[in-house]
Design a protein that fits this description.
Blueprint: E1 4-15, E2 23-29, E3 32-34, E4 38-42, H1 49-56, E5 64-69, E6 72-73, H2 79-83, E7 86-89, H3 101-106, H4 121-133, H5 149-163, E8 167-171, H6 179-196, E9 199-203, H7 207-213, E10 216-221, E11 224-228, H8 230-235, H9 238-243, E12 248-251, E13 256-259, E14 267-272, H10 285-299, E15 302-303, E16 309-316, E17 321-328, E18 331-336, H11 342-352
Parallel strand pairs: 4-9, 4-10, 7-8, 8-9, 14-15, 14-16
Antiparallel strand pairs: 1-2, 1-3, 1-5, 5-6, 10-11, 12-13, 16-17, 17-18
The chain binds adenosine-5'-triphosphate.
The site of adenosine-5'-triphosphate (ATP) has 11 residues, from β2 and α1.
Length: about 350
């Protein structure tokens, strides 16, 4: 097991405002963040992800218990001492003032400046190397407020790298990013954890991506936490128990969430004929069938061994056009795949019955 750099003891997170009883958010006991590991924190809105990150980073004090980094109790440290141990990247990075990307990354070096407050040549080299690490050195002279969300987020990660702390926290860093940028950020962070032996904890709502990339998932539920590898978590059905609702269900085999319809309509069985396997055309018929099946389920149809509808994807005659052959109520109907909405056609037959 990798070396633990952050640990907690009897940790209870929450808020203590004057004149009101304390508000407990989470009772997490003993937690560990280990060197070289990319950990992802997930949980429904309001369950306490930001509160936990703020507590682990020393921004707010625990209601009970303590957080230690490298055996130093966090709340006994001043801001500068903390910033030598922890860096934090937020989702909404509003940098005030007019700074270039390079100057922003350079800010990560301020915990190291001497008492004249002067940065050295080394600091400049470290900042440039951090920008290269995230593939953003070409942006170095651009003003931070002119960058896209994805570019800016890479610069903020570079700043955390330049700060060179053992622990890096990120609160929903991919919240405003498109799919490609989200994937890039996740992979980048994982490689930073590995290559630079950092302990990383990132909060996100990207469950499917976390399952593929994270070393460990920290799932908050109620006021508890469950921690485990993606394979251990998925195989225990925990994702389904925590995140499913009447309108969505997690498929542990495919690792994706599927939509469920509010009511059940008819039952169906779907298949393809032998010759479809060898079909060479613009679409992949087997993939087409898979997605048509998902669509039927999202509309309220359900798969059954004794179905009302038997649907077969096949090729029609010599022309070789793909068709749906539908058996329903003792009759067979044929629909041109490229010209019909299968669900609407089935619904018409079902309602006319
Ligand atoms: N300053 C505060 N004082 C009192 N309660 C707070 C404060 N900040 C947050 N809370 C409450 O603490 C609970 C956890 O909030 P938190 O922001 O940690 O959740 P979250 O999991 O990060 O949510 P989201 O996914 O919506 O960002 C919520 O009930 C919230 O209303």
């Amino acid at each position: 097991m990798n070396e633990s750099v952050l640990s907690t003891r009897n940790l209870i997170t929450g808020y203590q405002d004057k004149g009101v009883p304390p508000k407990v958010v989470g009772k997490y006991g003993e937690l560990h963040l280990r060197r070289g590991e990319f950990n992802v924190l997930i949980g429904v809105n309001g369950v306490g992800k930001s509160t936990l990150l703020k507590t682990l980073s020393g921004e707010i004090a625990p209601l009970e218990g303590e957080v230690s980094i490298n055996n130093k109790i966090l709340n006994a440290l001043n801001n500068t001492q903390r910033s030598l141990l922890i860096s934090f990247v937020f989702s909404n990075t509003n940098i005030v003032g007019k700074l270039t990307a390079f100057e922003t990354v350079l800010m990560g070096r301020y915990p190291y400046v001497n008492w004249w407050g002067k940065l050295k040549q080394d600091d400049h080299e470290i900042a440039l190397s951090a920008l290269k690490d995230v593939g953003a050195d070409h942006l170095k002279d651009r003003y931070i407020n002119t960058l896209s969300d994805g570019e800016r987020q890479k610069v903020m990660i570079a700043r955390a790298i330049a700060q060179n702390t053992d622990v890096i926290f990120l609160d929903e860093p991919s919240a405003h990013l498109d799919l490609i940028n989200r994937i890039e950020i996740f992979q980048l962070l994982k490689s930073i954890a590995r290559k630079k032996q950092k302990a990383i904890l990132l909060s996100t709502h990207e469950i499917e991506m976390s399952l593929q990339v994270a070393d460990n998932l920290w799932i908050l539920y109620g006021n508890e936490v469950k921690i485990g590898s993606p394979s251990a978590i998925v195989s225990s059905d925990f994702i389904n128990q925590t995140f499913s609702s009447p309108s969505i269900a997690f498929n542990a085999k495919s690792g994706v969430f599927n939509f469920c319809a509010p009511e059940s309509l008819f039952s169906f069985k779907i298949s393809f004929s032998e010759e479809v396997q060898h079909y060479k055309g613009a679409i992949d018929p087997i993939v087409y069938l898979e997605w048509e099946c998902k669509k039927l389920i999202s509309e309220g149809a359900y798969q059954d061994e004794n179905p009302q509808f038997s649907i077969c994807l096949t090729l029609l005659g010599d022309e070789g056009a793909l068709v749906w052959e539908v058996k329903f109520d003792g009759r067979t109907y044929t629909y041109d795949l490229s010209k019909c909405n299968l669900f609407s056609e089935l619904l018409k037959l079902y309602q006319a019955e």
